[in-house]
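About this split. The held-out portion is used to measure sequence recovery: a designer receives only the structure tokens and must propose an amino acid at every position. Recovery is the fraction of positions where the proposal matches the reference. Here is one held-out target exactly as it appears in the evaluation file.
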């Protein structure tokens, strides 16, 4: 059985760090907490779980802090988490089983990262990240912001999931670091250019974001998944700026990198739906349902292949008075969102409507 060091960097996480450590403490052999300047009770809470609490002077560089945390590890493998991450009970057991059965020649293990949940608590957005790595490989973190762990060798995709359950977020932290890097004369890498554009969108700076997304795509150095996401983000910017032509162009631009993704199909469907071009919209939402995402796709938004296209098809078929089909799609949407108010309302509406048709 392999041994595991948990390594975390934290700052002012008193509201969540205990929850995180409670969910994982029984399945790791060592806990290393690197504090980057907390002014609350974060360190005191961490000391209830481990005496390996270290200080690291914050230098506006996440990779530097994470690399320092990895240097504190002494066990076979390193598991990294953020303070607002949690392992559900079923995933705790999966981690236990992995620890007992993992071949020692595996260099890195990926896990699902559950980013958001629908109104019924089901996962609707997730991605994959390498979470468990061999210590002796000395893998390094790269990037001041939105850092990533560069891994290689023999890799393994697990079915373990980590849930991201934040209670608060410092909305200015990342964009401030990026702007300081630019002001200091540093050239952003293509990846950082993409993530800086994302930060600009989150702060409503759409025209500036357009510039950086274009710089990222023009570089031709981006990961294909980021290229596709950049196209969707460009579309969002143009939508906010009410530029319909460039909105459509940006969605179609994603086809330069791969076959149509479900999200692209739903975006095109919405465009035609807004123009009351119902048959065109029906085509694209139907396409979205036919393009199931692979289980191990790096980014997944389940809404685009489940309830969302079905609910939109319900509306569209109702518009063209194909009520049986509309009702069918409403029920299919309801199989994913059982308590959704829209679906419950539609169910009542179609029950009355179809009964009138039957009696007429």
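Reference sequence for scoring:
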């Amino acid at each position: 059985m392999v041994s595991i060091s948990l390594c975390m960097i934290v700052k002012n996480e008193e509201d969540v760090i205990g929850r995180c450590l409670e969910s994982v403490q029984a399945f790791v052999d060592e806990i290393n907490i690197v504090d980057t300047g907390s002014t609350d009770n974060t360190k005191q809470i961490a000391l209830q779980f481990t005496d390996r609490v270290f200080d690291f002077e914050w230098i506006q560089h996440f990779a530097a802090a994470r690399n320092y945390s990895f240097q504190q590890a002494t066990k076979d493998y390193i598991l990294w988490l953020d303070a607002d991450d949690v392992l559900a009970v079923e995933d705790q057991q999966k981690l236990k089983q992995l620890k007992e059965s993992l071949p020692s020649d595996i260099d890195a293990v990926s896990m699902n990262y559950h980013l958001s949940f629908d109104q019924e608590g089901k996962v609707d957005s997730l991605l994959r990240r390498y979470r468990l790595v061999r210590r002796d490989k000395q893998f390094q973190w790269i990037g001041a912001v939105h850092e990533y762990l560069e891994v290689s060798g023999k890799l393994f995709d697990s079915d373990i999931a980590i849930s991201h359950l934040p209670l608060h977020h410092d909305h200015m932290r990342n964009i401030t670091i990026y702007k300081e890097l630019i002001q200091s004369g540093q050239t952003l890498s293509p990846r950082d250019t993409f993530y800086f554009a994302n930060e600009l969108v989150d702060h409503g700076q759409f025209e500036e974001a357009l510039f950086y997304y274009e710089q990222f795509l023009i570089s031709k150095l981006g990961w294909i998944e980021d290229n596709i996401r950049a196209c969707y983000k460009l579309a969002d910017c143009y939508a906010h700026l009410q530029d319909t032509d460039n909105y459509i162009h940006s969605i179609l631009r994603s086809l330069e990198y791969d076959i149509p993704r479900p999200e692209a199909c739903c975006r095109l469907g919405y465009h035609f739906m807004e123009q009351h071009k119902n048959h065109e919209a029906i085509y694209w939402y139907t396409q979205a349902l036919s393009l199931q995402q692979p289980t191990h796709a790096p980014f997944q938004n389940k809404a685009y292949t489940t309830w969302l296209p079905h609910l939109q098809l319900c509306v569209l078929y109702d518009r063209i008075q194909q009520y049986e089909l509309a009702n069918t799609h409403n029920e299919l949407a309801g199989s994913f969102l059982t308590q959704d108010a829209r679906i419950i309302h539609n169910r009542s509406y179609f029950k009355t409507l179809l009964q009138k048709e039957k009696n007429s």
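Annotator remark: Residues 19 and 86 are 7 Å apart (CA to CA).
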